[in-house]
């Protein structure tokens, strides 16, 4: 019953979206870099391109490789329900030399995840592997699995717990119990996984004994569907883990038939596709959400957050602060008369009326959604703002008002009543003074970051940068974290009480923290989002 409701829910979202009905998307208390980033990776990130249409690679498919690495058969298999340790933690990165983790797909998948530079301080390789599994299933036409973020990456190998095809049923049942799954769920999970891809001769010569066979696929379809089940029940299956010449490695046969085929039969009955998809969606979601007890995941995200605000970008010149930001609105009605206004309140004194200073949106752009957003039939508009703010009175918080200019009341987007609070205005990255710098001497692109400090040259500023572009050429791929002391910027002399400090960072840095000491007081800004800056381009 629960599963049916979930499926109905998923369908309801799509139907509402397609019909353009009023919607009830959720929001979160800003700032929340983890949820903002998870939303942007699911709904607007580019990684899902590699799974769209279930594309082939290495005689299997990219999604098959991505799902396998996340699975109860690999990274997640280290979980132990008895002591609450292990789970999906990217420990696979340290376990690739084990025979049980053989396969080009493992390296290919980790290289994909590295290439898309998804890793962030609050979104590690384990979250990326889990997101990869969500995209893999959706890309091959399977269910949409809600995504939760917050996994913690391991820094060393876990125990050797990957189940292997030559093990007996009792060992597999115990392995899945230890990972938190009942014998029935084990049957489901293996069937759900083995709807994609197959077994490679070169990696499993004792399973695929015919050296002419490069890969023996588990079923005759590429897509995420119940063919693996129906072909098994109709005795037409060529799944090598069911009918392979080596009886010892027929692990799928032992697992599928372990309850007299009751579970497999159930998938087919229901499987008007829906039951298989529902069951697999629930089981795979549980599988990728299996983490050590001390790790807490976010609530599952099954729809985009509405009213997502991007990092406010500040700049100071000639007595004024400018602040650029954007507001994303999901599934807006088609209304060219809509106006959206940015409002803000003074930080010091009063130059704004009590209702707030205002600045209209300067432009708007259709949101380009990733695979999941497209499947859900979403539309979205991102409105841009560029406010000119009196630098002395500054601002303490901002908010938005959406006016459809019809008879309806304007909608106030104010972060649940508190407004979008600017914690401090003493230090900020100056978006118009900073530069995207092409160094012709070394043919490299760097970012010259300029931090404006409301204080004098005795201040000190350092930045800690997070770069997902790991310099390693083989796993483990970990974020490169670098702390740099900034220097006084000679090309930007002090102005209006502001002093400017500078340092170069790699163009692939996606987040940074600033720590400053100004007049004996410490200021910090954490998780500044470098992916939205628009520094001017300069060649030097
Ligand atoms: C007793 C448990 C399991 C055993 C013994 C097992 C065994 C295997 C073997 C031997 C392969 C071939 C790998 C290769 O040639 O590269 C394979 C592939 C695969 N397995 Fe499993 N598996 C198990 C459970 C699972 C589970 C729970 C999932 C996911 C829910 C899963 C997903 C996959 C996928 C997607 C592939 C295809 C990979 C590709 O084509 O690149 N497996 N499995």
From TrEMBL:
Keywords: Heme, Iron, Metal-binding, Oxidoreductase, Peroxidase. Residues 126-277 form the Plant heme peroxidase family profile domain. GO terms for molecular function: heme binding; metal ion binding; peroxidase activity. Pfam families: peroxidase. The keyword Iron applies. This is Peroxidase. Its EC number is 1.11.1.-. InterPro entries: Ccp1-like (IPR044831), Haem_peroxidase (IPR002016), Haem_peroxidase_sf (IPR010255). Belongs to the peroxidase family. Gene3D superfamilies: 1.10.520.10, Peroxidase, domain 2 (1.10.420.10). One of its GO terms (biological process) is cellular response to oxidative stress.
């Amino acid at each position: 019953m629960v599963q049916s409701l979930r499926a109905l829910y998923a369908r309801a979202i799509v139907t509402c979206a397609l019909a353009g009905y009023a919607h009830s998307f959720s929001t979160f208390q800003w700032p929340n870099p983890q949820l903002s980033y998870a939303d942007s990776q699911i709904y607007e990130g580019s990684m899902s391109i590699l799974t769209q249409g279930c594309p082939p690679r290495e005689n299997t498919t990219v999604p098959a490789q991505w799902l396998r690495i996340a699975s109860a058969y690999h990274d997640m298999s280290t979980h132990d329900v008895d002591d609450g340790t292990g789970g999906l933690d990217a420990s696979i990165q340290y376990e690739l030399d084990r025979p049980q983790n053989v396969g080009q797909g493992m390296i290919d998948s980790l290289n994909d995840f590295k290439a898309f530079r998804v890793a962030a301080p609050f979104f590690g390789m384990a979250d990326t592997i889990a997101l990869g599994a969500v995209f893999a299933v959706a890309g091959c036409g399977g269910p949409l699995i809600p995504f939760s973020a917050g996994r913690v990456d391991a820094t060393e190998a876990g125990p050797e717990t990957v189940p292997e095809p030559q093990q007996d049923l009792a060992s597999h049942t115990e392995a899945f119990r230890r990972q938190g799954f009942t014998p029935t769920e084990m049957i489901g999970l293996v069937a759900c996984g083995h709807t994609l891809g197959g077994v490679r001769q070169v990696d499993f010569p004792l399973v695929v004994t015919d050296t002419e066979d490069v890969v023996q696929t588990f079923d005759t379809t590429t897509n995420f569907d119940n063919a693996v089940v129906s072909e098994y029940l109709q005795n037409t299956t060529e799944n090598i883990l069911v009918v392979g010449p080596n009886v010892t490695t027929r692990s799928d046969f032992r697992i599928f038939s372990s309850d007299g085929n009751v579970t497999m039969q159930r998938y087919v009955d229901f499987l008007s596709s829906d039951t298989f998809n529902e069951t697999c969606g629930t089981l795979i979601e549980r599988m990728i959400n299996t983490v050590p007890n001390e790790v807490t995941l976010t609530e599952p995200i099954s729809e985009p957050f509405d009213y997502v605000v991007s990092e406010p970008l500040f700049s100071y010149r000639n007595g004024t602060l400018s602040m650029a930001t954007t507001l994303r609105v999901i599934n807006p009605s088609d209304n060219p008369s809509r106006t959206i206004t940015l409002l803000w309140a003074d930080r010091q004194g009063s130059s704004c009326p009590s209702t707030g200073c205002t600045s209209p949106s300067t432009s708007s752009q259709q949101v380009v959604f990733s695979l999941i957003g497209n499947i859900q039939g979403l539309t979205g508009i991102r409105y841009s703002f560029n406010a000119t703010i009196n630098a002395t009175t500054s601002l303490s918080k901002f908010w938005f008002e959406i006016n459809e200019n019809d008879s309806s009341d304007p909608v106030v987007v104010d972060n649940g009543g508190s407004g979008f609070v600017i914690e401090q205005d003493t230090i900020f990255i100056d978006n118009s003074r900073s530069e995207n710098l092409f160094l012709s001497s070394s043919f490299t692109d760097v970012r010259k970051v300029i931090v404006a400090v409301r204080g004098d040259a005795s201040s000190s500023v350092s930045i800690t940068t997070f770069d997902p572009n790991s310099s390693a050429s083989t796993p483990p791929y970990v974020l490169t974290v670098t702390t740099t002391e900034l220097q006084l910027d000679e090309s930007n002399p002090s102005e209006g009480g502001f002093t400017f400090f500078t340092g170069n960072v790699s163009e692939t840095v996606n987040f940074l923290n600033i720590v400053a000491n100004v007049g004996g007081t410490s200021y910090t800004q954490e998780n500044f989002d470098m992916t939205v800056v628009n520094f001017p381009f300069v060649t030097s």
